[in-house]
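# nightly structure sweep
# worker-07 picked up a monomer target from the shared queue
# config: single-sequence mode, recycle default, output format = structure tokens
# input follows
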Amino acid sequence: MTAAGRVSERSAADEARIRPVTEADVPSVHAMIAAIFADYGYRFDPAHEDTHLLRPHSHFPGQGGAFWVATRADTVIGCVGAIPHSADGFGELKALYVAPAARRCGLGERLTRHCIAFLQNAGCPHVRLWSDTKFADAHRLYERLGFRRIARRDVRAVNDYSEFCYEL
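# output follows
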């Protein structure tokens, strides 16, 4: 890849707008996540698994948190959510997804840093997340940002999978 190509990719991430999710965004968020899940042989079914994604515009604020989308030209290309748990000092990063066409340009890092800043401002100096063991690119991002892998669990639901727990 040329230096010009890297500049072009970086500007693509910089052009993306991060804003709170709206109810009107939900079908686009679901379609993006469903396509990502399909790439891994999973089925996206927020009514039975990942229920926090059924209505992210109300679920996250109802927990004292927030859910954001990243858009470019009015197209949803990424998302992330945050739920503070200030009683134990940990906030939870949830549902970081970036559309395949928008990857490798820094958008995942922007979304992650946005979420961390929100949680820290909400009184959570530490951040915890769970990530499917197949999401190797995300794991590299988390580790580069200082997260440590601390646990693994198996999940049996609509999709059977394993997850790593990371903490910052």
